[in-house]
Write a structure and sequence with these properties.
With 238 residues, the protein is an all-alpha fold. It has twelve helices and no strands. 37% of the residues are buried.
């Protein structure tokens, strides 16, 4: 694995990424604040992150908007029956997500006064919430200085730092999470995490990455050596 980035590398990495994100971020419903809101409600951030697991953004958007209209708060979701929740989820697939979402809403309503836990550890204790989702909600909704590392982020980091190991391995994932944490700009973890995910989803894609449009191109070891399409390496076949 790569060494811990220097302070200068961390600074330029974050600045380049955040400037790009401010200009290029997609207009998505869960990124919007309603009139009078100073920040995005944690419930909406959480709902979007659950729906986006293993599902493309374009597919999620109409489901997110319908689900939010039917269950606009943790309380309305907690008070609904599981059958009602599954009905609204119908067609989105991976139904365990809906069951866990409902169970978590009931726990939040019953044990947390209807408010999502505002720490990584607290969120991690909810049904269906793994390290990525906990990191995303904690940083985006509550400003916690924690990384959120999904498949897109792993791919970006692997290419920029020329990490040629299998990113699906647990050890490598832990090391990539530590690397992401070392790059976090204090106080801007939410935008930084969203920017990394956005870059992986729209520019540093699995096939045919658009390196000419990448804000990190000048610092990317994989691009420098012409190996961006070989990193991360494909998973070994059994």
């Amino acid at each position: 694995m790569t060494d811990v980035p220097t302070k200068e590398i961390r600074k330029t990495f974050a600045q380049s990424l955040l400037t790009w994100f401010a200009e290029q971020a997609r207009d998505l419903p869960w990124r919007r604040s309603e009139p009078g809101e100073s920040a995005r409600p944690p419930y909406r951030v959480w709902l979007a992150e659950v729906m986006l697991q293993q599902t493309q953004v374009n597919t999620v958007v109409p489901y997110y908007e319908r689900f939010l209209a039917r269950f606009p708060s943790v309380e309305t979701l907690a008070n609904a029956s599981l059958e009602e929740v599954l009905k609204e989820w119908e067609g989105l697939g991976y139904y365990a997500r809906a069951r866990n979402l409902h169970a978590a809403a009931q726990r939040i309503a019953g044990e947390h006064g209807g408010q999502l836990p505002d720490t990584f550890e607290g969120l991690l204790g909810l049904p269906g919430v793994g390290r990525y989702t906990a990191g995303a909600v904690a940083s985006i909704a509550f400003g916690r200085n924690v990384p959120a590392v999904d498949g897109n982020v792993r791919r970006v980091l692997a290419r920029v730092f020329a990490i040629r190991e299998d990113v699906a391995r647990s050890r490598v994932q832990r090391e990539l999470e530590a690397l992401a944490a070392s790059l976090l700009p204090s106080g801007q973890a939410g935008p930084f995490n969203e920017a990394l995910m956005e870059l992986g989803a729209t520019v540093c894609t699995r096939a045919s990455p658009e390196c000419a449009d990448c804000p990190l191109a000048n610092d990317c070891d994989a691009r420098r050596h012409g190996s961006q399409e070989d990193i991360p390496p494909p998973r070994p076949t059994r």
